[in-house]
């Protein structure tokens, strides 16, 4: 089985010839399925783009949502709509709302959106303010003083969902592929070859998901985790011990591309990127 991995395609910034080029790469590369680690588009265009891609490829698409996918809406309602997409279009699978997917006897796939959860770095002194705070109802409708608590709550909910899925997947498989949008560790949060500083980290690391991943690896010594994420639009690999690797893929607005290929071989995941 050969999976193509895409992150941060931001299809709303994408001209038709760039979209055609991506579809051609996916076909030529022999994708049996596609993984998308979020920032697919914005608002209602997310569902349109996912259906269009699924129709063009006629292959399953496993996705999580990134912060941009929640623009022009609220967090809970956007997730509910994404979870319902699978009923409209059988090739679309929103990993955040799904239990473990078995790819082979040894290899499982799970996913969770994640959120820059203000638990790493220095939120109070950071001058960074994302467009998220104006474009997503939950922040726009809240007091500025409550933003940190909302970010932390989103991280907590992501971590809770992922904890349950990790326990189930790691009890029955020796390799687990985890798709998420936000890098779960400072060490995996790349920008131009360096990792994040204290001002960007609160918005670009999901620390509570990172804690859950570390705990899960400790608890299941026979299992290895490979995490695929995006959000920073800058690439890098972070190995947090021998059994936990995080691959962060780069992205460019208007130039969606395949970030990597994953071969599911007996007992192994081979990642080319
Ligand atoms: Fe992005
Ligand atoms: Fe993002």
What keywords describe this structure?
8 helices; 6-stranded mixed sheet; binds fe (ii) ion; alpha/beta; 273 residues; Purple Acid Phosphatase, chain A, domain 2
Could you characterize what this model shows?
The protein has one domain: Purple Acid Phosphatase, chain A, domain 2, CATH 3.60.21.10. 33% of the residues lie in helices and 22% in strands. The radius of gyration is 17 Å and the shape is globular. By secondary structure, the protein is of the alpha/beta class. The chain contains 8 helices and 14 strands. The mean pLDDT is 97. Helix 6 (147-172) runs parallel beside helix 8 (207-219). A hairpin with a 2-residue loop joins strand 8 and strand 9. The longest helix is centred in the middle third of the chain and has 26 residues, at 147-172. It binds fe (ii) ion (2 copies). One fe (ii) ion is lined by residues 8, 10, 39, 66, 68, 231, 233, 251.
Summarize this entry quickly:
The protein has helices at 16-28, 45-57, 75-88, 132-135, 137-140, 147-172, 201-204, 207-219; strands at 2-6, 33-37, 61-64, 92-94, 101-102, 107-112, 175-180, 190-191, 194-195, 224-229, 236-239, 244-248, 260-265, 268-272.
Q: How many structural domains in the coordinates?
A: 1
Strand order of the largest sheet: 4-3-2-1-13-14
Estimate the global geometry from the Cα principal axes: globular
By DSSP (H or I, 4+ residues per run), the number of helices equals 8
Uncertain residue segments: none
Measure the end-to-end span: 16 Å
Computed over alpha carbons, the radius of gyration is 17 Å
Largest sheet: 6 strands, mixed
Strand content: 15-25%
Q: Structural class given helices, strands, pairing?
A: alpha/beta
């Amino acid at each position: 089985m050969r999976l193509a991995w895409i992150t941060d395609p931001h299809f709303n910034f994408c001209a038709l010839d760039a979209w055609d080029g991506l579809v051609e790469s996916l076909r030529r590369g022999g994708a049996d399925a596609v993984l998308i680690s979020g920032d697919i588009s914005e608002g209602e265009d997310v569902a349109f783009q996912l259906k269009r891609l699924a129709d063009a490829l006629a292959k399953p698409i496993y996705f999580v949502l990134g912060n941009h996918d929640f623009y022009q809406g609220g967090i809970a309602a956007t997730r509910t709509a994404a979870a319902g997409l699978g009923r409209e279009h059988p090739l679309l699978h929103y990993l955040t709302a799904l239990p473990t997917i078995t790819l082979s006897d040894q290899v499982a796939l799970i996913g969770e959106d994640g959120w820059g959860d203000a638990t790493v770095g220095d939120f109070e002194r950071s001058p960074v303010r994302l467009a998220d705070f104006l474009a997503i109802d939950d922040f726009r409708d809240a007091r500025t003083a409550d933003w940190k608590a909302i970010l932390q709550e989103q991280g907590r909910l992501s971590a809770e969902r992922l904890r349950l899925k990790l326990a189930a997947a790691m009890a029955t498989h020796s390799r687990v592929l985890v798709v998420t949008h936000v890098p779960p560790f400072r060490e995996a949060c790349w920008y131009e070859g360096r990792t994040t500083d204290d001002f960007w980290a609160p918005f670009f690391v999901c620390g509570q998901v990172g804690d859950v991943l570390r705990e899960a690896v400790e608890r299941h010594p026979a299992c290895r985790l490979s995490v695929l994420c995006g959000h920073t639009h800058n690439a890098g690999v972070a190995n947090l011990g021998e059994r936990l690797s995080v691959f962060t893929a780069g992205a460019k607005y208007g130039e969606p591309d395949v970030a990597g290929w994953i071969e599911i071989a007996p007992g192994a995941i081979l990642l080319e990127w």
